[in-house]
Structures are given as structure tokens and as C-alpha cells.
Amino acid sequence: MNRAPVYMNSEQLRQLLVRTEGKYRDRNLAILQKEEAINRLQTFIN
Fold it and tell me: In which domain of life is the source organism classified (predicted)?
């Protein structure tokens, strides 16, 4: 039976952190862009 290692070496850990950080950064960027677009629309309407 093949079990995944319980521990990770530092390189695996670093790659995992980089991947998850990238995902969150992209999501935050999308949220910021959406808010900016909404603000532009509101100033255009008013």
C-alpha cells in the first residue's frame, strides 16, 4: 500500500506556498479590478 509521506521537504513546502500564494494573489487582483470597475461606473453615472 502506497502512502503519501507525512512530512514534506523544504523544497516541496516552498513550492506549495508559492502555488497557493499565487492563487490568492490572482483572486485578490481580480477583486480589486472589479471594485475599480464599479467605482468607474458609479462616477460615470453620477
Answer: Bacteria
Mean pLDDT of 26-42: 90
Decide: 16 and 8 in contact? Cβ < 8 Å. yes
Q: How is 9-42 classified by DSSP, letter by letter?
A: -HHHHHHHHHHHHHHHHHHHHHHHHHHHHHHHHH
Residues 40 and 35: their CA atoms lie apart, in Å, by 9
**Res. 35: pLDDT tops 90:** yes
CA 46 to the chain's CA centroid = 33
Q: Residue 37 — pLDDT band, cuts 50, 70, 90?
A: very high
